[in-house]
## 1
Amino acid sequence: MSGTLSEAEAAAELERLAADIARHDDLYHRQDAPEISDAEYDALVRRNREIEAQFPDLIRPDSPSRRVGATAAETFAKSQHGEPMLSLDNVFGPEEFAEFAARIRRFLGLSAEETLAFVAEPKIDGLSINLLYEKGRFIRGATRGDGLVGEDVTANLRTLKDLPLRLKGPHPERIEIRGEVFLEKADFLAFRDAQQALLDSGKRVVVPANPRNAAAGSLRQKDAAITASRPLKLFAYAMGAASEPVAETHHAWLKRLEDWGFDVNPLSKKLPDEHAAEAFQAAMGEQRAGLAYDIDGVVYKLDRIDWQRRLGFVGRAPRWAVAWKFPAEQATTKLIAIEIQVGRTGALTPRAVMEPVNVGGVVVRHATLHNEDEIARKDVRIGDTVILQRAGDVIPQIVSVVLEKRPADAQPFVPLTECPICHSHAVRDGDDVVRRCTGGLICPAQTVERLKHFVSRRAMDIEGLGEENIQRLYDEELLRSPADIFRLAAHAERMRQWEGWGAKSKKPEEAKKVPNLLAAIEARRRVPLERFIFALGIRRIGEQNAKLLARHYVSFPHWREKMIAARVIGSEEREELGSIQGIGPAIATELVEFFAEPRNLAALDDLAGQVTPEDATGSGAADSAFAGKTVVFTGTLTTMTRDEAEAVAERLGAKVTKSVSKKTDFVIVGADAGSKAAKATELGVATLTEEEWRSQAGID
Ligand SMILES: NC(=O)c1ccc[n+]([C@@H]2O[C@H](COP(=O)([O-])OP(=O)(O)OC[C@H]3O[C@@H](n4cnc5c(N)ncnc54)[C@H](O)[C@@H]3O)[C@@H](O)[C@H]2O)c1
Ligand SMILES: [Zn+2]
């Protein structure tokens, strides 16, 4: 409670809050990756405001109550707005709204007879942008940034279909137009799932927490082509600096925006006076669930622009507009079970199954529980009564448990150690919060995804086996594992009977579909070892790591054998694997887990019966200094193991022997070398230091 704070304590807390809030602003606005929920963030802001109200002398120059957003990120050129872009004050109910309207009346000295018309606009949770048009052409576009200076995202904005590059009809010489860039709910969900899948497969991507972060992340890309690939939408709703007045009311101004070719939210409406707001708010609340996009409230803007000018701004928000936020939609229900879903990439995600309940117009049966740590943190047990919430996010969350209603037989959640689908081990690694199925090659939940990866261009590169065809072959039960691909020839006749697959087709390219496909498959019976390893889709084994493994182990049988031995913690092979430069212990663990599942190994061997991985070869083995030469290693090498060095030499065409004789061409002398080095000198055999060996062998 701020009531009990001493002045020194208040100052210290304000300092801490300023720093904390600035950090969360940065995470939210610049990195599009908030660490805390909006409700938690809003609580910090409220706390700051309360203390400031009590100790006005302590208000800091960097106080969050004076700032908007966050400064522009360095990655973008800076763009100064012609007029500041501010935030909006919030109200949460009819009394607060009435107070807002009364303040306007007081400020303007209006009599009770004077009517206050407003324009109501749904508040979409996206990000606001400022668009500069000169002579009717789109010149520059920027994010809000800190309100004065934003990030120049012109190239990205040009990719938005809704953004007119030229204004239609008459227009001022120079004008700033503002609007909201956002993603629709369905597009957000698809995008979030795709990002999650990438994350699961070991890619470093951000999974957006809500549509706003997703929209902001999509727009704030260095590569505009990425922005272009995201279905961003734009509604225009305001004006910044303009070279001449455009309209006398906000409503007329929205009409001009439409004339110029912008989309204006069709739900925006002019209200005759402040008393119409409550009904509008209620109507939007009812429509909310059915809208294609998420809204978190309604923005009410005073219609008369001359009055807006007189009212101006206070702090970080205009006096003439307000955001009336919807209350977070909550409901109470009973948790019946926690089921585990296995994602396409093997992530096990707990999901709450509840007695159906209506939350803000949507019947909810399931809620995400994210991961087992979250279940533990909220102490959610099966049989509990829980409070559900749909806030800004589309997906309901469990906020908390009603402990008073916990039945005596409520069951704590016990994490599964087995995949519920394929019964392979399910493991959590290091500080990863996600538990994963290790049955990569055999888990039905992951099969289609693995097969797609297996045939993809950078992996086995089997032409004609696109996603659709993989799915079809899977649905027809011809494909279950990678090896099955190489047995498809036996089903050629059956495949030809499918619609569009040949027999019934008139188009020549369809008639040849099956033979072409089978030929493409045959062509891949031999592939470089590194592609083969990469194609297996083992977590964290991307192209680069596959290459390192192939180079180190050279042949498939050798690699396989070493991986099996490496299952033993502390074994020489495990150490060797972990010490390969670029691999390291974490990746070693992923590999070892893959090999620890016997059915993965069976699937791998099945595949190796169909495909022959070619030994890894160094660049230009034939013309290397070691081709056809006999070499001996002695002493301890510091940059690679003896095994690796021998493998490299063999790959370069050398014959590696153990003892030095007159037939020896080179002796590579490591540290603490003994008699062999002496013998080489005695016989006049060339010796190389480790460094010379590396450079002649062409190792980095
Ligand atoms: N979780 C976190 O760490 C974190 C950090 C910072 C901010 N936040 C959240 O961000 C919000 C504060 O951000 P804010 O300052 O942008 O305020 P705001 O989002 O509450 O309101 C201002 C914004 O509303 C948007 N808007 C939508 N429709 C509009 C319309 N028709 N007319 C005008 N504006 C419209 C614009 O983008 C504008 O910038 C809060 O909800 C806060 O919880 C969260
Ligand atoms: Zn599984």
Note: The mean pLDDT is 88.
## 2
Amino acid sequence: MTGLRVENLSYAYGARQALDGVGFRVEPGTFCALLGPNGAGKSTLFALLTRLFTAPQGKIEVAGHDMARAPRKALRQMGVVFQQPTLDLDLTVQRNLSYFAALHGLRGARAQARIEAALERLEMRGRLGERVRDLNGGHRRRLEIARSLIHHPKVLLLDEPTVGLDAATRHAITVHVHDLSRRKRLTVLWATHLTDEVEDADQLLILHRGKLAQDGTARQLRGGLGLADHFLRLTGQAA
Ligand SMILES: Nc1ncnc2c1ncn2[C@@H]1O[C@H](COP(=O)(O)OP(=O)(O)OP(=O)(O)O)[C@@H](O)[C@H]1O
């Protein structure tokens, strides 16, 4: 199994059950949208998948590596874009990326080639020398996505990566990542509460009150309804 596999994950904050027996698979080359209203458990799931929290039960497998038994191998195959930006604003694009490359043991010409290729994919190559503080919100987000690809992960996790961006930028970034998943056979898990970021052919996981309410293609799940209406009917909350 080379994509992402999750079995029976649960997590509680004291008496509050945030996740309850969640399991799913995402195959290579698949863009999978994780949709859930506020408080559904998306961030908790991301914290478990990225090993910020340790899963008290269940199983996580990343590109065939078990997160509990071989965490380093599993994490090496994972790229992550967190909800909160984690760039150093006072460094240039180049310095931000070379620092990250070095953390993954990449240096010199090899690191530089990876950096330039990642920026190229996100149409950011011309911005190597710019300070991150001088970039707009959309370019900062693209830079974080470029950074998450430098070590050539097989699985890419993004937690509400378009928060705070305008509609056109949001659309451009969503299109880019869909394209990446197809062309690079990347396994993508994209958490959002915005139904317009989901394409009909995407795998869709709907998380509601800590449980996985639905898993299928967006087209199958929404049936004759628009996805926003389907989501509202299922969760009682507008997307
Ligand atoms: N540190 C915490 N302590 C106690 N309860 C928490 C904590 N973090 C989250 N929760 C609760 O766990 C549940 C799931 O929260 P989580 O942040 O995972 O949801 P989410 O789907 O990411 O929501 P959002 O879209 O608002 O970010 C919620 O009921 C939330 O109130």
Note: The chain has two domains: 1-77+154-239, 88-152.
## 3
Amino acid sequence: MSNEALSFTSPGAIALEAIGLSKRFGSFKALDDVSLKVPAGEFHALLGENGAGKSTLVKCLMGFHRADEGAVLLDGREVSVRNPREAQGLGLGMVYQHFTLVPSLTAAENLVIARRDAPAVIDWAAERRRIEAFLDRTPFRVPLDRRVGALSAGERQKLEILKLLYLDQRFMILDEPTSVLTPAEADEILGHLKAMTERGEITVLMITHKFREVQAFADAVTVLRRGRVVGGGRGLSTREMATMMVGEAAATAGASGKAALPERRAMPASVGEPALELAGLFAEDDDGRPALRGVSLKVAAGEIVGIAGVSGNGQGALVETCCGQRPLSSGQMFVNGRDFLPTRRAFDAAGLFVVPEEPLKNAAVAGMSVADNIVFRRFEKPPLSRRGWWLDRRAIRAAGRELMTRFRVASPSPDTPIGALSGGNVQRAVLARELSAEPIAVLIVANPCFGLDFASAAEIRARIVAARNAGAAVLLISEDLDEVLDLSDTVAVISHGQIAYKAPIAEVDRGTIGIHFAGGSEGEQGAPLG
Ligand SMILES: Nc1ncnc2c1ncn2[C@@H]1O[C@H](COP(=O)(O)OP(=O)(O)OP(=O)(O)O)[C@@H](O)[C@H]1O
């Protein structure tokens, strides 16, 4: 396979240098003269706020995009990477935010089919020996015979990395590799990678928004801002990195992620009907297995109930059933004491708003413009439409533009298809649509800050608390335990499709939550808390 191409690089870690890379999308310059040097065996972090150009840069390195200008050197020799296959042949591999494994195959089968030189007729016994010998040389352990669909998120992420190592990728690009992991899983995986860099076996370039990980694992950082390199180096403090990313004033407001939270107004003392009540929800996943097994929960007006848990314990199904995207096998949902059936009309009548996770997939139309996506829920109402059917394009554009400014959605124009925005900006646009409505009686949000840079995360969390202060009942479902602990009045843990624990925030301690997390998803060894 790649041996020929790899022959000019040294046997261990590969050094990479990008010189003066520029990339335009139409008239928009996503990368402007970006240079980056990652010596062999370095663990290098790539930072930048949402839309700064991080993904564009690594996509140019991996051959998904062709840079308009600039050069890439591997071990000092210029290479031309025209597509990801060529990147693979040169020893460049990438771990994506989403998993790329085949869920119905076992871990071992996934490794075999990943090989570019996999034979048409596979000698499974020989392959097995080869994989076991390979695994002996790596620190990562995964159950080889288990179907990937039954692996925990941590095990899947290890397998993604093993796949690259199996393919002899010795320059590894990681795009927010820990976003689906518990802090302990993240530390384990990054710790192994760090040790491998120290032994000179691989080089790592990691995109992350987590300063803690940068401080703990990275040897050096490069910071991008609006498509340009604005700083970097070794031994930088969190504050120095934050300032490079967003500028002095914003860094002061948001570096801790907590500073910007508005003061909480006391919850109304009279506890009448809960604004949202879930009563014994049962639902199945796509394979007909139980996903929700009797979820019951009440959320009062002016309260945030935060549901924590290890990824894959029913969070997705819970949000989907509340949105009407997954049928209930049994159970009932009440809003303000009335039976609620999730139809478009019922959402508006009840003042119920939902921000699901992966908003581009679940809450936006990728090919439609940013402005249209933002005003989606108000199309047929004045002033965006007259007599309920005549759409006023100019008013839609103006309303879209106004919300884009308020929620700081960075887009070349209101007419740009939302699918072309960076992940963080899609998130902001969907939040702009759901959080700008008045009044919000019930707000359901899932992983609202997933993939957001620290300043944006602080801003979004502040908006959620503001909605609560204004009287909304908020159901927050988040895999970020710190987020749940920072925002919630009441904390619950979901495990195996059931609410395993629930307590007011004042009575919650991380140890108790850890015990309830530990019943986590299949294959999970418990999910210790960081
Ligand atoms: N295919 C494309 N067409 C048009 N514009 C694009 C395209 N891909 C990226 N962009 C724009 O380039 C800019 C940089 O996007 P990029 O995805 O590289 O940012 P990022 O730093 O990775 O952000 P995030 O942290 O939110 O993932 C954004 O303004 C984005 O809208």
Note: Confidence is low (pLDDT under 50) at residues 255-259, 520-530.
## 4
Amino acid sequence: MSSSEPAPFQAGSCQPEASSEDHLDPSIPPPYQDRRPSSPCSLFSVEESETDQDHAKLPATTTTSEGFENGQPSFPYRGTRVAKRSPPPGSPRGIYLFPSLLSGEKCSEWIERISECNYFDAEEGRNQVMLFGREVEGKPSEGGSLGMTGLPDWSKGLVQELERVLRPELDDLHRSLLFPSLDQDPSGQGGRDGSKGGPPQICRSRQMILNLYSPDQGITSHVDLVNRFGDGIILCSFGPQGRGIAMDFEPVSKKEEEKGFSLFLPSRSVLLLFDEARYDWKHGIQPRDFDLVEAEEGSSGKVERLQRGLRLSVTIRWLLPGADVVGGEPVDHHRVEQRPSGSP
Ligand SMILES: O=C(O)CCC(=O)C(=O)O
Ligand SMILES: [Fe+2]
């Protein structure tokens, strides 16, 4: 992290305690040419709000046999993978999808808080923001747990809620990689970044990157920078209820038995990537405004064509020791692509 003076923290403001501007790399080209959400108080416009009522009105889903032959996509969907609703057999080790882990109420609240922060500006092509926080040892009076400094309040709330809902779902190793605590068992195996399951390094830094995608945008297939970020990445998806995107996974080195697949990430879902899924497989999103998704988990039959909506992703990662010093390293940026003309 840069050594510049932190900006003064204003209670209740969106400003992180240390300005996120310090960390924005000017070489990052604007990733989105976005349609500005119509409501200034919500990222998602009135038509795209988070209510079940609206969901019922969405003309977004069609269950179709048109465009399929023998269960395989044919014209106009030839070459479009059908996304699974859970990681299929043969998925890499370390991929976990929780389709509706976050409550609608909490998600709406975070979206409101994020909207108020005015991070995004379509006219200026600003649709990505990076926030950084540094871990601090908690006060013994507060249970001695680890806290974060430098992040805006809404994001601390998100991390706390993620910790609350994920802790019971994770085994010791994965829990300790995402949410190290002071009383951790030092006998843990550790992650592939060399971190141990033992007492955490004090003063680690978290990065949170927010990406706002319009429906026809995607992200180039990539592995998150291995020299910058640790093992254990949290990907949260926000958007209108019932919508989502298909994320594609491809092995970095093609082995016969490893086949790429596509996974549907609905709004309010949380995806975790550790180990093979984090280091040996690439992830990306095709730039198109719909996805083909299996109608029900594990079903080999019916396929839904789901129209994409505006989507906000929040990716949360630990910076490796020393990686919070800016300069000299490649930037973690993956260009968000527009839909190529002529594709379905
Ligand atoms: O949109 C997403 O969930 C993916 C973001 C991502 O892969 C990244 O920021 O590295
Ligand atoms: Fe990524």
Note: The pocket of fe (ii) ion (ligand 2) is lined by residues 222, 224, 283 (CB under 6 Å).
